[in-house]
Design goal:
about 210 residues, alpha+beta, 4-stranded mixed sheet, 10 helices, GST_C, Glutathione-S-Trfase_C_sf, Glutathione S-transferase family protein, Glutathione-S-Trfase_C-like
């Protein structure tokens, strides 16, 4: 099994899951700025020219949520409830909510404060982010109410929905996301950071050093 990645939120979910489940895999780090995602060979693996991509023998899979479900099935983990349809629906709801709502409002803060300086795209545009605050507050309230009395997002246990929703929001302090007043969201995010594989998902020493510095 081989996983193509670079240091960003979607690969983070997959890499954390691989480490958490103890799955053996080969990791191929992509040079985003060097054009690795735009090569013909990579485009044949993922026509979207994004990461992550999983290659398992002749099987090729892209989209992080699908990759996470596949990894759970391979490992026999109920982080994706393959044999429990009602739980699948619950997890799917939150995967969909993330992709349609949550990622749309946390993404601009993550991009301005993490991606732009991390890849040399410039400095954060805080004036632009002022227009994004209302949307973030709206959906943070939804998530905060849902997490009241809950440790995890779905099924009463850790699932791939937690990794999906937390991937950009994990950096809420560095990204200046206005989440401090949402105590349940903060508690949930801080709780996930106590999972070793989530706190340190990256597979290379070089990346770990860069992440720490």
């Amino acid at each position: 099994m081989k996983i193509y990645w670079f240091e960003a939120q979607a690969p983070r979910r997959v890499l954390a899951l691989v480490k958490h489940l103890g799955i053996t895999a080969e990791f191929a780090e992509l040079d985003l700025m060097g054009g690795d995602l735009k090569t013909p060979a990579y485009a044949r693996l993922n026509p979207n020219m994004k990461a992550p991509v999983l290659v398992d023998g002749e099987f090729v899979l892209w989209e992080s949520s699908a990759i996470m479900a596949y990894l759970c099935i391979k490992a026999g983990s109920d982080m994706w409830p393959a044999h429990a349809p009602a739980e699948q629906v619950e997890v799917l709801r939150w995967l969909g909510w993330n992709d349609c709502h949550w990622s749309e409002v946390v993404g601009p803060f993550y991009f301005e404060h993490i991606i732009k300086p991390g890849f040399g795209f410039g400095t954060p545009d805080r004036e632009e982010l002022k227009t994004k605050v209302d949307g973030l507050l709206r959906y943070a309230k939804v998530l905060d109410e849902h997490l009241k009395g809950r440790e995890f997002v779905a099924c009463g246990r850790l699932t791939i929905a937690d990794f999906q929703l937390a991937s950009m929001a994990t950096y809420w302090r560095e990204s200046e996301m206005p989440l401090a007043d949402f105590s349940n969201v903060v508690r949930w995010l801080d709780g996930l950071m106590r999972i070793p594989a989530w706190a340190d998902p990256w597979p290379t020493e070089r990346t770990r050093r860069a992440n720490a510095g």
